What does this fold into?
Amino acid sequence: MGKLLPPLLLYSLALFGGLLNRTYAQPPSVTFDHLSEKDGLPGGAVYSIAKDRQGFIWFGTRRCPARYDGAAFRSFLFPETYFVTGMAADSANRMWVSSDRGGLCRIDPSATRLDSVPGTPRATGYLYASSQGEGWFSRNDGIGQINFRTGKMRFYPLPQTTYRGYKVKGFLEDKQKNLWAIGSDNGLFRFDRRANRFVCVLGRDCPDPARRFQVYLNRGCVDADGILWIGAYGKGLLRFDPKTNQFSFLKIPDEPNRITCVEEGRDENGRRLLWVGDERGLLAFRPEQGRFYYLPDIRPAPFEVNALYRDPANGILWVGTSDGVLKYNPQDNLVRTVTLPPALVRLPVTVKVIIADQRDTTGETFWLGLSHTGLLRWHRPTNQFALIRYPSDAAETMWIEQASDGKLWIGLRRWDYRGDGVMVYDPQLNRFVANAAAERAGTLFSVPFVDHGLLDSQQRLWIGNNDEGLRVLDSRTGHLLPYWADSAITALHQGNNFLTDLKADATGRIWLGTYQGPYYLESPTHRFVSADARNPKEGQPEDPATNGLLIARNGHLWAARWGSVTESRPDGTLLTILTARDGLYDRENRRLAEDQAGTIWIGNFDGLHAYQPKTRRLFRLTVSDGLSRNNTTNALYIHRGTQLFIGQENGLDFVDVGQVNRRSPIPPIVVSSFQVHEQERPFDPNETIRLRHNDAFSVDFTTLTYSRLPNVRYAYFLDGQGEQWHNIGSAHRAYYTSLSPGHYTLHLKAADSFGHWTRQPLQLAIDVLPAYYQTWWFRSFVALMVVGLLYGLYRYRISQLVWVLRIRNRISADLHDEIGSSLSGINIMGTMVRENLPAGHPSRSMVERIVEDSRQISSSLDDIVWSINPRNDELSHLTARMNRYAAELFEAAGITYEIILPEAIEPVKLSMEKRQDFYLIFKEAVNNLVKHAGASEARLRISLENQQMSMEVADNGLGFDPAAATERNGLRNMQSRAERLGGELSIHASPGQGTTLHLRFPVSA
Amino acid sequence: MIKISIYEDKEALRSLLELMIGSAEGFAVVGAYGNGQRVTEQLSRDRPNVVLMDIDMPGPSGIDCVSRVKEYDVDIRVLMHTVFDDDDRLFACLSNGADGYLLKKDTSTHLLNALHEVVEGGGPMSPGIARRVLQTFLHGSPPQRQEYGITPREHELLQLLAQGYTYRMIGIQCGISVETVRRHLKNIYHKLHVQCGTEAVAKALRERII
It folds into this structure.
């Protein structure tokens, strides 16, 4: 391996060879989360762990099976089970359960019901689903097999021993798909499919005497190489190679070796190892070392490990213990921690400065400046540390600058107040070297505290002291460069305006961090210019005090200040001000770093913050994400744009920044609960959910990240209820009441703390069935009913009218046929009689009367029939008839007449009654005129104006005294008819002056 | 001598009509029937000049009978005998070829005159009938209206009639004699027959006009 290493490394290896065996000589640095009854786990102890096809994790506890979605447990209490030692999902995602009671049980895919499988023994254990689709389980007398599909069972007895428990502690399938049964005390068995029997290869029942010995086996696993690892009571860890049948026992030194289970996994650095559970806790076994390491301090008290399950999909390790569940999620271990070897330096010590050695082209050598004693050289891949001691242990590293020749310029605070504040270390010579400039620089201030230092491209060394400010000298000669009068420096730092940072930008401009905000050195005057000053007062951060500066790659200046972090243009114009409102948890922002993606990392006292200017999102990593401490103010160093190092007490943390951006995609959304009116309902995501109108329903959905970080955000929306995603933060429940009938699609999605959304939102089809009164057929029915009713009414009305018409027509017909004909007959007979009577016959006048009266009656009959006829409702018909009537009468009487009718009568209709009244008034008036007036001229005028009908009948006849009107001329009759018409009738007459009759009545009323 | 056939379902009235016409000078009753079921046969036997036709009869109505008479011989004149002068059926009869009408109330005084007039080719016209004649000509199919349409003068005359004006009044209004009014009316009747008559009647009439 040495040949591949660069010379520097070889050198390092030679130097620190003594530390070599310290490599990984420690338990994996992983963090476990604990789930217990407090979190809703039913029954404290967990005996089996399984994952179903949707991604839910199932725990078999002392009490019952339970499903876990990362937030809540769903327990299956009935029928009663006990000591659930085996769980496995079949291809249809039914979860099978073996326990001490109730036989094998089964949970339907929608996870709403637990059912006993009939015909199975009451006590079953350690259920295992093979790749052949069969279930294997342990019995008190041997091994049982069940076909998940058909339910058909088989039994393989094992020889009886004094052991009274389950004969088998589990099953394994090796890479050749051979099935192995781990006998509790009968030994290890291989299933011979051809012979359909179990063959003991090791232990009590083994036919080979060399391999026949008493061994109590426990649960095991098959590793990636196909090796079987099985816990062996008292003997340690059994390693069994199924190809060669070779075996060995690996013992934990000085321990009773009561190993209960094994699972292959990886440590925080991705190295393979075996997780081992025993009766006292959890261990890591590193196969290449053959060594076991207890994981300390997982729980306050020792605990028994009953089951181990590592999810191959996401690498999460689940540990079932006598006290709840432990979980190690590598995704939660984003931050890795390196601890300083304890013997190296007096603890506690803080890593104050971190820089990579520019001359190591592999980029794996780092210099760590400590808070006391000295400087560490750290080679990351081998995790080797070398200490370079300062002259005094009381020197605190403040800064390290590596010059182009590889020499390290180190700024110190000499807490012993003696000696030099700046030292130069030559890594090649492996010692501190004398340097005039460093000596000069280290003694420029009243105390040897050189808090800030910078080597610029012009070989100038800029140094600063918090109180006394800035100095600059030529790094080659050590000559002080007198850019300012002392008074200028004093003026800048008066009133406790501390100098807090020193940076050079790409143009060579020097920037100063001070309590009054950032300053820069104006060229060529070397005047100090406040960067904030060009901003309006109201646009400035609340507190200008700056603790640290960062010149970003785009030239923008970032300032970590008290209460804020700001971004400004090179000219000082403020662009961004981040405060607690944006998610900064602490006011003392001290360190800044920028990664390749442009993310600004912010170190303060309460976590590591990261701000993505592109998305304007601020997120935060804490001890929950693996930081050693939330205080990240000591040192923040970005290496090659991708590795972020955080100085910590007794060590350092580092984050693969790329991993933040390359987080494994957020798992798909699953529905954990579907409730209608608060009642759990079976749920199948592939089927349309059918709801009745007025059903209130809720969908609990989640993404199965099993992260301890509550940083998944959820959103949903319902088609047909707006297209906007409804962001619900960390809650994950969609709730709807009384949707109107129709088809809906519920969209569900989630995002992690870095803003990555689930690629494919889950879509649930929902049908809300209409209530009967909302169905189209009901509505049509009602509409039809209404239409039918209206039509019926209409028909009724029409039929009434038709009936009236028919009666009118029948009356007409009867009059016409019977009376009309008879009258004609009488008239004809009368006429003939009259013709035949000689003149002067006494009966002649009588006959005349017969003829005349019959003609009169005929005429009246004609009028009546005419007015009954509905067709004659039209006013023009009436006026025509009046015209004809009057004309004929006047002509017969030899009266000169004038008849004036309305020119074009609008289609006005008069009811039968009105028509009759009007006509009869007219007839009476005309008849009176002809019979009694003795007039030679007559005038008839009929007009229609403004819905008012008026008629005037005038003559130049004798006239009469209206007061003396007699019954005979029918005046009273006319008056009463006029009243019925709602009009007025007036007669102007005086003897000898003619008569004028005037009638006026409204048409419409 | 004018030969008359009488169609009247009321027996009493029929015998009176028979008596009345029969006793009048210049008229002879050649047939008197209660219905028109065998009208063609009766016509061929009786060979009347004028048929006095009641409208409301059992069997074929007066309307049908008019057609049959005209189909049989377009020269036989038909005088409708009716109670009402604005009856739909009366108008239908006129359209089918009837040459005039007589109101039953006027039978005793006007029957013989009416029979004479009908032979001469003229008939009276009431406002109701005139109105319908107008409508017929206004709404008839365009080609026919063009060919057999009424003249403006006839139109004017019909309008006055429809408003109830008497022949005399019309004559005064239009500056023509009552006789001219009658002649116009005669023409109008003919045109009406062509306009509305059934195909056979119309054809016969058309030939006659042309």
